[in-house]
Structure formats: structure tokens, C-alpha cells
Amino acid sequence: MTTFKGIRGTAIQSVSSDPTNPEEGQIWYNNTIGVLKGYKTVNVGAWVSGGNLNTARQGLGGAGTQTAGLGFAGGNPAYTNATEKYDGTSWTNTGNMATTRSYIAGCGTQTAGLAFGGENTSSVSSNATEEFDGSTWGPGGNLNTARRILAGCGTQTAGLAFGGYTAPPAPTGPSNATEKYDGTSWTTSGNLGTARYGIMGFGTQTAGVAFGGNPFITTAQKFDGSTWTNTGSLNTGRMSGAGAGTQTAGLAFGGQLTGNVDTTATEEFNGSTWTTAGSLATARRYLAGAGIQTSALAFGGNNPTPGFISSTEEYINPSFAVQKITTS
User: Fold this and answer.
1) pTM to 2 decimals?
2) Which residues, listed in sequence order, are joined to residue 42 by a DSSP beta bridge?
3) Quick check: is 15 in a domain?
4) What angle do CA 100, 105, 108 make, to 5 degrees?
5) CB–CB of 127/146 below 8 Å?
6) What is the DSSP string of 124-177?
7) Is 187 found in the same domain as 146?
8) Domain annotation covers residue 323
9) Could you report the per-residue pLDDT of 253-297, keeping only the tens digit for each?
10) Do 138 and 11 belong to one domain?
11) What is the tally of structural domains in the chain?
12) Domain range for residue 291?
């Protein structure tokens, strides 16, 4: 007869409390509560703590992956041009941006990043673009529409910028403008269906997703390289959160809710619908994100209670959890 010991090489232990660091497939009997338990993969992702930014700030831009991330610009409260690189454990300072600004957008990788838009130290919306080569920033082509609190996705040679808030010297208000970057210059493309700022996004230049934004809407739209079309709505309407992933496997996290409340809410997108997932440990707005749906990075931001935030969180899906084992 096949036994658990024969399969796993160990017997089922009887313990007074659950083990601190169980292994996948491990089973034990908790004799304090009289329950048989096991450790297994679960489909709901979870956030775990990562290394802190060297400079706590909000309104920063993000790019890269969970193990090769990039954070740049922002404010605390003075605006900064500081840039940091993440190796999966800790952040290291690297070359500063040429322009100091906050409420910026970014995309690309740690060795080929793109930063665009934002607000400068004179509270004027910026059209400046900068390209990062892994150590230094160089100038890129200017946006056609200067704006702050916008979103972006894609790569350094195929970037996408959308939404935001225009301000002096341009007419003031939310923007529906969409622009595509080819590595040299920006070209105007199809407008968003809803003009908004505090918008979030992920994906590529030809397969992007825009979601949320002021006034705390749930609306989401998909981009095919020329036009935007409506898709499934967020479960939690929000603005100034962050996103990561692709058009068919994306992640939305954090942001501000109505009533000046920040959220820890995380949602996974499968290309048509959003599903609630594991919450951030720290509620925050004006944070940055990077990575993909199964291994995302959330860092920086602001919250009325702790103020400017330096903490980093890493999203893992699939994750693991202790489960009760029942019999019928």
C-alpha cells in the first residue's frame, strides 16, 4: 500500500503549532486544534517586502522588472532628479536625470529606460523626454502635449504616453492625448475615450491598457496601436496608482480613492476582466510600478499617515499558503 512516507520520504508530524517555514507539499497534524494541514500553491498572488528606496518620494517614474527595476524623479516634497536601480534586494543610486520633476511617467528596462512628461520645479507641465542607458540619462524628443500625472508603457524605442493633466502655459485640464515614441520623436495617435489624469497603464505600444484616473473611475480601455476600445471595468475605482504587465496579463495596485483615502487593493487583468488579488501591505498613492503580472514591483508613493514612502513590495503569483485538509 502506498503511504505518504513512501511518497514524500517523511512521516506526517504531529505538532503543537504550524511550522514557520513549510515546504510545498508538506503535511502536518496540528494537535492543538486537531486539524490536518498542508502547504500548497494558491492562485491568489501576495505582496512581500523588498528593499527600501534610498530616497522616499512620490510622483516618481518606474521601469524594468522585479529583479532589475528603475525608479527616477519624484518629490519629498522638493522635486528630485535622483535615479535608483533595484537588483531584487536593494536599491543603488545611479546617474541623475538632467531635469528635476515629479508626477512623471516611464517605461522600458533598467538598461534602456524612458522618462517623459511630469511637472517641473516651477509647477509647469513638462514635455521633456530622457533616455537611460543603464548609467546615464540623455535627451530624447519632446512630447507634443506637455502634461503631468500621465501614464506610459512600452519600451525606449516603442513607447506609449496617454492621459494626464495639462497646465500653464497650455490650457489647463485633463487630457485624452495619446502619443507614440519611436526612439527619436513622439507622434500623435488616437485619443483616449475619456480625458483623465492620475491614469494608470501597462502593456506595449501596440497592445496597451489604460485604467482608472480622476475622478476615481473604474473605466479601462485597450489600445491596438491606433485606437482605444472599452474593456472590463476595475472593481475598485481609483486614481494615481500603478500598473505592471501585459494587455492579457496585467496588474493594478494602490492609488487614491474618493474621500482622500488610499488603497492597498490589487487586481489582476486577463485581457477582459479584473479579479481581486492580494493586497499591498502599505496603502499608497503616486507610487511607481514595474515588472509583469506574476512578478511585479511596487515602490515609493505617499500616504497621509506615514507621509512619503520608501518601502518596496514584490508581488508573487503563484504564491503559497497553508490549507486545511478535509475528508468527505
Assistant:
1) 0.84
2) 319
3) yes
4) 110
5) yes
6) -B---EEEE-SS-EEE-PPPSS--BS-EEEE-SSSEEEE--EE-TTSPPEE---
7) yes
8) no
9) 999 999 999 999 999 999 999 999 999 999 999 999 999 999 999
10) no
11) 2
12) 46-316
**What are the residues whose beta carbons fall under 8 Å from the beta carbon of 38, sequence distance 6 or more?**
25, 26, 27, 28, 322, 323, 325
Q: H helices of the chain, where?
A: 4-8
d(CA 240, CA 216): 9
Residue type for position 227: T
Residue 37 C-alpha cell reads as 494541514
Q: Considering the domain boundaries, does residue 327 fall inside one?
A: no
Residue 103 is which amino acid? Y
What residue has cell string 477582459?
A: 272
Local structure of residue 220 (DSSP, 8 states): E
Question: Are 50 and 38 within one domain?
Answer: no
What pLDDT shows up at residue 171? Answer: 75
Q: Are residues 32 and 170 in the same domain?
A: no
**From CA 134, how far away is CA 312, in angstroms rounded?**
21
Residue closest to 52 by CA, chosen among 90, 81, 14: 90
* Cβ atoms < 10 Å from Cβ of 5: 10
Grid coordinates belonging to 41: 500553491
Residues 198 and 276 both lie in one domain:
yes
In angstroms, the CA 240 to CA 201 distance is 10
Are 141 and 131 in contact by the 8 Å Cβ rule? The answer is no
Spatial distance between the Cα atoms of 316 and 158, rounded to a whole number of angstroms = 27
Residue 140: left if φ>0, alpha if ψ -120 to 50, beta else—which one?
Answer: beta
Looking at the fold, whether 68 and 37 belong to one and the same domain comes out as: no
CATH of the domain at 144: 2.120.10.80
75-to-20, 132, 216, 300 alpha-carbon distances in Å? 39, 20, 23, 10
Q: What is the pLDDT of residues 33-66, one digit of tens each?
A: 888 878 765 556 899 999 999 999 999 999 999 9
Say if residue 133 is in the same domain as residue 273.
yes
